[in-house]
Amino acid sequence: MLDRKPIFDEVRHLLGRGFDPHEVTALDCAIDRALGMPAHAATGHRLGAAGKALIRKWEGCGKRRADGRFEAYPDPGSADGDPWTIGWGSTGPDIARGVIWTQAQCDARFDRDVAAYAEEVAGALGPAPTTQNQFDALVSFHYNTGAIGTATLTKLHRQGSFAEARGEFGRWIYNDRKPMRGLKARRAEEADLYGRA
User: Fold this and answer.
1) Cα angle at 29 between 23 and 30, to 5 degrees?
2) What is the number of domains present in the chain?
3) Deepest of 45, 82, 134, 192, by most Cβ within 10 A of its Cβ?
4) For residues 188 and 169, is the Cβ–Cβ distance under 8 A?
């Protein structure tokens, strides 16, 4: 078993800061790939077609320019425009005003990001029994909220309280403390997918 601590310590030193949970998972996945392990090897969970379609439906591949490329745009639901977003809902420190990507860049970033989010969901769920539809719904939820580690619905799912967990999706419809019609509709679709056998 590889001791990853020296790798994380060195990268932390080079960056001059710590990591957020998404970055930890992304770095773990990169190490796994370098070792020839598929990203889903530790958990057995992978995002399915229904989950990928749901995320892409709600994220869209937005702000297409006349030349066919895509430009970054501010979050339309937040008061300050943060976070800046591009492609299939991709955000991060490398995305800001003036960033322009091709469709291939948008697609590649989506594949990378969604794999990391799926790993985070799998880690948060642990050994709890989880159907493919439940997993897909939770990855969509996490891709949009980043809250799989703190959400009550995760705790309820781990306890096997699936009906109660399903009801929790509807609580995540706010941006800057305001209910958003789009988030309400997205959470309803995620809850529906979660509840399917």
Assistant:
1) 90
2) 2
3) 134
4) yes
Mean pLDDT of the chain: 88
Whether residues 119 and 154 fall in one domain? yes
Active site residue 23: no
Annotated catalytic residue within 10, 23, 59, 168? 59
Which pLDDT tens digit goes with each residue over 6-29?
888 888 888 888 876 556 666 766
Q: Residue 150 is part of which domain span?
A: 38-195
Judgement on whether residues 90 and 29 belong to the same structural domain of the protein? no
Residue 39, pLDDT score: 47
pTM beyond cutoff 0.70: yes
pLDDT at 36: 64
Distance in angstroms (rounded) separating the CA atoms of residues 82 and 78: 6
The pLDDT value recorded for residue 63 is: 87
**Separation between Cα atoms, residue 154 and residue 166, nearest integer Å:** 10
